Amino acid sequence: MSAARTTRSLKRSIAAAATLPLLFGALAACGYGSKSDDTKDSNAAPVASSGAKKLSADEVKIGYFPNLTHATALVGLNQGLFAKELGGTAIKTQTFNAGPSEIEALNAGSIDIGWIGPSPSINGYTKSKSTSLRIISGSASGGVKLVVNPAKIKTLDDLKGKKIATPQLGNTQDVAFLNWIAEKGWKVDAQSGKGDVSVFRTDNKVTPDAYKSGSIDGAWVPEPTASKLVSEGGKVLLDERDLWPDKKFVITNVIVSQKFLSAHPDVVEAVLRGSVNTNAWITANPDKAKAAANAQLKKDTQKALPAEILDPAWASIQVLDDPLAKSLTSEADHAVKAGLLKKPDLAGIYDLTLLNKVLTAAGKPAVDAAGLGRQ
Questions:
Q1: 105 vs 17, 133, 194, 255, 261, CA distance in Å?
Q2: 3-class secondary structure per residue, the chain
Q3: So what's the pLDDT on residue 40?
Q4: Which of 8, 52, 163, 252 has its CA 20 to 30 A from that of 137?
């Protein structure tokens, strides 16, 4: 394919993404329409520990992204830490490229538990009138950066009039960028992305090519896309951690279908033990964990990350058990402020009962739902 044709296709993709319909504010626009290539079923048969005692379910279906901000899922699966806790209950995995399709899978019963970002969690919970899911744990903080073309943009004020990509209309990074723009006093129409800054919604897989072609001048994106852009000559102009108290904000949390939680709390508890143990192992063994995450990425995508991308991306992500509930509330407020979402009722979105049981048993402090726990 010629360079001109590639650029034309890329621009068509960007234009199509930028004109998505507005449903339930823009967050709902990233809600329930998925494409067949958004998901990937595990090629392997469900995994269970041989001869071990089965819990109340024959299998648990786990969803996640082949993305470093989902390090807990990547490392826990690769190292068998979930399988160890689940015993004879098999694990079946499915990977996703977008939060909306993962929420759709959860609603359809295709997965039971998922690693996912905060915006799809909020959207899924609210759109279902509080009946679809609960957030049951934190997983990761950080790992989001604004990377720009240093020849065109040297300071944050230089963003005015430039073309900046986010992954998806109304997704977590899109909300963060629109909120940042509003705080600068600049105006952007949230739905079209037009205004003092041109916001282009592009799939993370496409963004590096868009940057190389000059179709965009930068991007507000998660890892490893941010480090991929840096490897193409981009410069980190802002790390989103610097915008949050204590430099912590939820980028990935763990959700469960309410139906599965009610029917199989022992299985959910076992997955949470695996998650807590995985996060402890990652913290104690960062280099081994980084290699394990990359090995799982290669298994899931047939392509490992090179060191020049893997190393800086990994360093910017912090795994944790705390869901950082206050930051979820702030992210919802940011979406409302940007005109992307009607004021949501998030009461009961968290059920941290089993997580706190696991943490207490491990001698760790309990975590808080910031008033949004299940009553």
A1: 22, 12, 32, 12, 16
A2: CCHHHHHHHHHHHHHHHHCCCCCCHHHHHCCCCCCHHHEEECCCCCECCCCCCCCCCCEEEEEECCCHHHHHHHHHHHCCHHHHHHCCCEEEEEEECCHHHHHHHHHHCCCCEEEECHHHHHHHHHHCCCCCEEEEEEEEEECEEEEECCCCCCCHHHHCCCEEEECCCCCHHHHHHHHHHHHCCCCECCCCCCECCEEEECCCCCHHHHHHHCCCCEEEEECCHHHHHHHCCCEEEEEHHHHCHHHCCEEEEEEEEHHHHHHCHHHHHHHHHHHHHHHHHHHHCHHHHHHHHHHHHHHHHCCCCCHHHHHHHHHCEEECCCCCHHHHHHHHHHHHHCCCCCCCCCCCCECCHHHHHHHHHCCCCCCCCCCCECC
A3: 62
A4: 52
Tokens of 314: 């990994």
Per-residue pLDDT for 2 more than 50? no
pLDDT band, residue 54 (cuts 50/70/90): confident
Measured distance CA(225)–CA(205) in Å, rounded: 8
Q: What is the mean pLDDT of residues 143-149?
A: 97
Q: Which residue type occupies 235? A: K
Could you tell me the pTM of the whole model? Answer: 0.85
* Rounded Cα distance, 335 and 327, in Å: 12
55-84 pLDDT tens trace: 999 999 999 999 999 999 999 999 999 999
Say if residues 142 and 348 touch (Cβ distance below 8 Å): no
Burial class (CB in 10 A: 0-12, 13-18, 19+), 365: exposed
- Three-state SS across 76-98? HHHCCHHHHHHCCCEEEEEEECC
The dihedral formed by the CA atoms of 213, 215, 218 and 220, expressed in degrees to the nearest 10: -120
Q: What is the mean pLDDT of residues 346-359?
A: 98
Amino acid at position 210, single letter: A
Rounded Cα–Cα distance for residues 140 and 69 (Å): 6
Among candidate residues 121, 139, 119, the one with its CA nearest the CA of residue 130: 121
- Asked if 71 contacts 20 with a C-beta cutoff of 8 angstroms, the reply is no
